[in-house]
């Protein structure tokens, strides 16, 4: 998993509330277990019409936001079913950070396991970030995980809270497998001792 330390990039404003995981990645795209290739179908039903053509008014189809790395979202982002494909699709598109007033718990935790930083901030701060994001591609936002801060293009800074363990994992690029591999030496010692004590197993 790629480490997350600092990020400076374009932020896309998405004011909708209650964006569920089926809106993030519709159910027909869940057949794959690969973590790549889903970005083209991110927000599929909002991005494309019935003929598969882009809907120009959708934020990620606008030229200013095609390379967005930060998403400023509405309340209760990631609600609905617990599909891990939702953060996969966001990451494959290029989104490394989602900032919203609140998140669904399962989606929130899945983000950390896939290298995405979800940040919860009060609605009044989200409103200011939305306004900054609406300036377009020239208004680049910065996120500093170590300092736990978000800075707008105008220099306004907002601090956020994060669980220390989740912060450690993101900053060191550790998913569940990575965390296990940190204990590889201890696991090897245990297995060697177990083999010596119980060679018949």
In a few lines, what is going on in this structure?
With 201 residues, the protein is α/β, with parallel strands linked by helices.
How would you portray this structure in words?
The chain has helices at residues 21-24, 44-47, 85-93, 105-113, 123-133, 164-171, 176-181, 184-197, and strands at residues 6-14, 70-73, 97-100, 117-120, 140-144, 149-151, 157-159. It is of the alpha/beta class and 201 residues long. The chain has one domain (6-197): Alpha-Beta Barrel (Aconitase, domain 4), CATH 3.20.19. A 7-stranded mixed β-sheet has the order 4-3-2-1-5-6-7. The chain starts with 5 loop residues before the first strand and ends with a helix. The model has no long low-confidence stretch (mean pLDDT 92).
- Structural class computed from helices and strand pairing: alpha/beta
CATH structural class: Alpha Beta
Give me the count of strands.
Answer: 7
> What share of the residues lie within helices?
25-40%
Widest sheet, order of strands? 4-3-2-1-5-6-7
SSE sequence, one letter per element: EHHEHEHEHEEEHHH
Unreliable parts: none
Count of DSSP-assigned helices: 8
Q: What secondary-structure arrangement, pairings included, does this model have?
A:
Layout: E1 6-14, H1 21-24, H2 44-47, E2 70-73, H3 85-93, E3 97-100, H4 105-113, E4 117-120, H5 123-133, E5 140-144, E6 149-151, E7 157-159, H6 164-171, H7 176-181, H8 184-197
Parallel strand pairs: 1-2, 2-3, 3-4
Antiparallel strand pairs: 1-5, 5-6, 6-7
């Amino acid at each position: 998993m790629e480490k997350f330390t600092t990020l400076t990039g374009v932020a896309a404003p998405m004011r909708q509330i209650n964006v569920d995981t089926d809106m993030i990645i519709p159910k027909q795209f869940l057949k794959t277990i690969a973590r790549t290739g889903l970005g083209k179908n991110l927000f599929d039903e909002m991005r494309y019409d019935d003929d598969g053509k882009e809907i120009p008014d959708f934020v990620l189809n606008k030229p200013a936001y095609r390379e967005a790395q930060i998403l400023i979202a509405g309340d209760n982002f990631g609600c609905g079913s617990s599909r891990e494909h939702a953060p996969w699709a966001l990451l494959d598109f290029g989104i490394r950070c989602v900032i919203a007033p609140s998140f669904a718990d399962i989606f929130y935790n899945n983000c950390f396991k896939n290298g995405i930083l979800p940040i919860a901030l009060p609605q009044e701060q989200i409103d200011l970030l939305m306004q900054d994001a609406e300036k377009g591609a020239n208004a680049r936002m910065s996120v500093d995980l170590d300092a736990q801060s978000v800075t707008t293009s105008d220099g306004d800074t907002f601090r956020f809270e994060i669980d220390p363990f989740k912060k450690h994992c993101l900053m060191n690029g550790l998913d569940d497998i990575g965390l296990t591999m940190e204990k590889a030496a201890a696991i090897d010692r245990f297995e060697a001792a177990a083999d010596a004590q119980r060679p018949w197993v």
